[in-house]
């Protein structure tokens, strides 16, 4: 995914040039920073650092840098990855204490990472990065127009996705219940919903010796 993201961000320049090189470098830096920050933040909170944690952090960094890739400096991308990892980590921790169902932490990682990235672009975009950047400077560089547009866009996107998702979920729930019963949950949704078994034995009763 990390390697493929280079094609997504740097490839969006549609040519080999300063914009593509800048997007490539900032994408790599933000992802690396976010992965390391996620692991270190876990350690500070008393959790054991893990390869999975690094991978989650790296993805958060990739998501966060995407709006800004090619329009911020490498030091700024380092900051973006770090901030996104901390914010997403906190939201993941908060979500775990609620009854919200998001098994893969899609919103805390992809959703929140994208929100942070959009805000950071409005703050840190710099026209001096490369000649192709004509979007204007961010708030930290003395201009308010770009930041204002990003905040308006952010509000519109949040409203659109929330309302649209609610409509889709309600319609889907009318056709087929989105919540599994207690019995189906005990059996396992792999089998009860899809007729497949991921594991050759019942994990609710089986114990694997180490």
Helix-strand blueprint:
Layout: H1 2-9, H2 18-44, H3 51-65, H4 74-96, H5 106-124, H6 145-175, H7 182-187, H8 189-194
Helix pairs in contact: 1-2, 2-3, 2-4, 3-4, 3-5, 4-5, 5-6
Largest sheet: none
Number of strands: 0
CATH H-level superfamily of the domain at 2-143? Ammonium transporter AmtB like domains
| Beta content | under 5%
Shape: globular
Helix content: 55-70%
Measured on Cα atoms, how large is the radius of gyration? 20 Å
Tally of alpha and pi helices? 8
Helical/strand content category:
mainly alpha
Predict the CATH topology of the domain at 2-143: Ammonium transporter fold
C-alpha end-to-end distance: 32 Å
Question: Stretches where pLDDT falls below 50 for ≥5 residues?
Answer: none
SSE order, one letter for each helix or strand: HHHHHHHH
Mean pLDDT: 87
CATH architecture of the domain at 2-143: Orthogonal Bundle
What is the CATH class name of the domain at 2-143? Mainly Alpha
């Amino acid at each position: 995914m990390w390697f493929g993201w280079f094609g997504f961000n740097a490839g969006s320049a549609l040519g080999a040039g300063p914009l593509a090189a800048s997007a490539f470098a900032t994408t790599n830096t933000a992802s690396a920073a976010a992965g390391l920050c996620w692991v270190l933040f876990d350690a500070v909170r008393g959790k054991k650092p893990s390869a999975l944690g690094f991978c989650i952090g790296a993805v958060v960094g990739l998501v966060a840098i995407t709006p800004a890739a090619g329009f911020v400096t490498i030091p700024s991308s380092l900051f973006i990855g770090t901030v996104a990892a901390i914010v997403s980590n906190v939201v993941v921790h908060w979500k775990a204490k609620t009854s919200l169902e998001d098994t893969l932490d899609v919103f805390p990682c992809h959703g929140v990472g994208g929100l942070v990235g959009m805000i950071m672009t409005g703050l840190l975009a710099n026209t001096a990065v490369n000649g192709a950047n004509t979007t204007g400077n961010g708030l930290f560089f003395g201009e308010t127009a770009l930041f204002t547009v990003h905040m308006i866009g952010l509000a519109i996107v949040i409203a659109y996705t929330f309302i649209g998702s609610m409509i889709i979920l309600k319609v889907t729930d009318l056709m087929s219940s989105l919540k599994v019963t207690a019995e189906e949950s005990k059996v396992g949704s792999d089998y009860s919903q899809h007729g497949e078994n991921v594991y050759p034995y019942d994990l609710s009763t089986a114990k694997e010796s180490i």
